[in-house]
Amino acid sequence: MAPPLSSFRLFPAPPSITFAEDAKLKTGVATAVDELKKARVGVTPPFRLAIIDLVGGSPLKWGAHEPDTMDFIASEAKIIALYAAFALRDMVRRFASLNKVQTVVAAAAGAMFGLPKPAKRASLFDALRTEIDPTILATADPLLGSTKRSERLPRYEHMFQVAPGGIPDFTPQYRSWLRAMIVPSSNSGAMECIHGIGYAYLNGAMREAQLFKSGVGPWLAGDFIGKYTYARINSQNDQGVAQAGTALSIAKLMAIIIRHAIVLDGDAFTHMENLLHDAVNGPDTPFLTRSAPYFSDDALRIPINKITHIKLGLADLKSRNGGQSVGSEVWRLEGLFRPDKVYALSYQNLDWTKTSSEDLAFVIRRAIELYEA
Questions:
Q1: Which of 115 and 163 is assigned the larger pLDDT?
Q2: For 34-88, how does the pLDDT look when each residue is reduced to its tens digit (9 = 90+)?
Q3: Three-state secondary structure call for residue 157
Q4: Of 57, 4, 70, 64, residue with least CA distance to 29
Q5: Which residues pair with 72 in a beta bridge?
Q6: pTM for this structure?
């Protein structure tokens, strides 16, 4: 018989990999930050940084500077929506398959025992709303209590299409919104993606991936346009914000995607990786690969061909916090020094009024150089 709905998972199972702070990588980052402070007397780096070594088995090694500080990260948070969209697609497919099995079992039992044919089942999307939505609401983070019920829940027709007898999949329009959200970092594309997923499922996916814990980790409860209510969480650099995270948790999310560390149906990771790869050479090229005025010393600049996947964020802080722009990025970095070394790397709160792209690039280069020595 088909498994009961009570055992049905709303979210993918936890990651197959774990993460552990590594003494050598930790020392490399700390030494690099200390050397920057000595070279730039009076400068206290405002940025946070996390580096995860993607080579090897579980646990993956990491080292960081202020890894658990929550900051406003602007569009870098769109990688959260990217992952959550494919997690929701996986759930919808599993639910559709379960319902199909249950229908077949009921029909077979009816034929065997001469029972009436079962009543026609509700449409997939109606069944999801009836059987799944209440559980999504019940598991929603309390911070989302200020948002409307409709904003917390998925809009299934907005995202999915189902051919007769087929497997649920994104509509062509939703696929185009996913691409718009990641590659040119379109806010309107992000809005459509987020409206489809719903805040409760979106942030629940971060919790179940063991990335959001005790109010710390990836948080996305704004739609970048303002059509949905924003549910804000406290950040170090900008107080209450709707797009936040820590350097370590966002780097872990990239690591999970790159390592295919969660079971997702079909081509999920291929699509995610393709979009993050295409973003490297999209309209928003990585900050630390840019020429003047970002860099005067090309020896420090990170070669763009070493960054294979990215999501970038850039926005202004509130006026009471200075009003200046801050940058954030998450990367897959390959072969910066050794060709066999690959990293997931995230930084945030790059405040160009207090530091520079060159300062951050120096810390990244020096930390990896010391770790690989």
A1: 163
A2: 999 999 988 899 999 999 999 999 999 999 999 999 999 999 999 999 999 999 9
A3: helix
A4: 64
A5: 244
A6: 0.93
pLDDT at 112 over 50: no
Helix axes 268-278, 247-258, angle to 10 degrees: 120
Cα-to-chain-centroid distance, residue 30: 26
Q: Which two tokens stand for residue 89?
A: 């697609």
Is residue 113 packed enough to be buried (19+ CB in 10 Å), middle (13-18) or exposed (0-12)?
exposed
Q: Please tell me the distance from the alpha carbon of residue 353 to that of residue 100, in angstroms, as a whole number.
A: 58
- One-letter amino acid of 180: A
CB 81 within 8 A of CB 197: yes
Q: Cα 71 to the chain's mean position, in Å?
A: 15
Tokens 């579980």 belong to which residue?
A: 58
Instruction: Give the residue extent of every domain in the chain.
Output: 5-17+70-297+307-339+346-351
End-to-end CA distance of the chain, in Å? Answer: 57
For range 201-207, the mean pLDDT: 98
Answer whether 253's CB lies under 8 Å from 52's CB: no
CA distance 76 to 81: 10
Q: State the Cα–Cα distance between residues 328 and 348, nearest whole angstrom.
A: 4
Q: Report angle CA 309, 313, 314 to the nearest 5 degrees.
A: 145
DSSP string, 163-181: -TTS--EE-HHHHHHHHHH
Give the strand order in the sheet containing 19-21.
Answer: 19-21, 60-65, 48-53, 342-351, 325-334, 307-316
In whole angstroms, give the CA distance from residue 225 to residue 46.
28
Res 101 pLDDT > 80:
no
Q: Could you read off the pLDDT of 173-191 as tens digits, one per residue?
A: 999 999 999 999 999 999 9
Write the DSSP symbol of residue 237.
T
DSSP 255-320: HHHHTT-S--STTHHHHHHHHHHHGGGSSS--GGG--TTS-S-TTTSPPGGGEEEEEEEEEEPPGG
Find out whether the peptide bond into 45 is cis, omega within 30 degrees of 0: no
Structure tokens at 359: 């300062």
With H, G, I as helix, E, B as strand and everything else as coil, classify residue 249.
helix
